[in-house]
């Protein structure tokens, strides 16, 4: 019980998936607990995250850690070495590089997720939906510029910001369908980065099938009356 790790999550959540990828990168064994997206929430979730009442939540020795970016840092600090006992920190050692990684992680959560949500919440053809499409393209181009010519966002090694962003790669297909644009034309380097990330077992075993993600996005559009 002292080292028991449980992740409260939802299958398609990019926020939960980043936690799963980080745990896999560290070689941490954990129990996965699927939660409900809608309807009555489990008692465990309500007890573990009484403030926001949402996933993901990491339970470590019964103590809850909430909010995915905070969970990532907790995982990085609690298990600083990989399963092979070699240094494998997700965040950079340099303070400035850490600050930049946190800045861009915040950008992903505030900008990319907002555009994604508006793509399926707003009705196609309406002015607000057209603006959401333009905003999404701008965000993707901004992330592409930050990546530049590097293999990964942190340089040559897969790290913190890669873990933060890579779950959204499974949503790229939905972006194209709902936004009416081609990802390979807008951000070819970002698409190639996503393919490199998927070569890692931690990512390949975690990301949801893009077609299933798109079906889920259509479910959300229907739920919000945006079809």
TrEMBL record:
**Chief location of this protein?**
cytoplasm
Q: Where is the GST C-terminal domain?
A: 94-216
According to its UniProt entry, one GO biological process term is: glutathione metabolic process
Keywords assigned by UniProt? Cytoplasm, Transferase
Catalysed transformations (reactions): RX + glutathione = an S-substituted glutathione + a halide anion + H(+)
This enzyme's EC code(s): 2.5.1.18
Question: Where is this protein found?
Answer: Cytoplasm, Cytosol
GO MF terms listed in the record are:
glutathione transferase activity
Role this protein plays: Is involved in the conjugation of reduced glutathione to a wide number of exogenous and endogenous hydrophobic electrophiles.
Q: Any idea what this protein is called? A: Glutathione S-transferase
Naturally occurring in which organism (per UniProt) = Oryza punctata
